[in-house]
Write a structure and sequence with these properties.
This is ATPase AAA-type core domain-containing protein. GO terms for molecular function: ATP binding; ATP hydrolysis activity; ATP-dependent peptidase activity. By secondary structure, this protein is of the alpha+beta class. It contains 3 helices and 2 strands. It has a single domain, classed as Rossmann fold (3-Layer(aba) Sandwich), CATH 3.40.50. It is globular and about 45 Å long.
């Protein structure tokens, strides 16, 4: 959650603007669950800022087409079921790749 209201959404908007300007490129969002978990409607404790940031991400994803030559990838170590359904619907993050945790001897 950002210190100042609206900064998360502004950063998302600028990120996608830069990606368009510098394409071809890849946007990688680590721990997408930090802003992309299911919405509860609770706006206390930064919930409203998180929701504004998520809404901007959804809007930015919708505004992209294959013509921009930008690939957006996100990862999470949380369950895909914990993510907001709007985030993982077709046209946004619509492919999921599950990677098993490596065994101790494989690390």
């Amino acid at each position: 959650v950002e210190l100042y209201a609206g900064m998360g959404a502004l950063r998302i908007r600028k990120l996608f603007e830069q990606a368009k300007k510098h394409s071809p490129c890849i946007i990688y969002i680590d721990e997408i669950d930090a802003i992309g978990s299911k919405r509860t409607g609770d706006v206390r404790g930064g919930g409203q800022e998180r929701e504004h940031t998520l809404n901007q991400l959804l809007s930015s994803l919708d505004g992209f087409s294959k013509n921009y030559n930008v690939i957006t990838i996100a990862s999470t170590n949380a369950s895909v079921d914990s993510l907001d359904p709007a985030l993982i619907r077709p046209g946004r993050f619509d492919r999921s790749v599950y990677i098993e945790r490596p065994l101790i001897r494989e690390r």
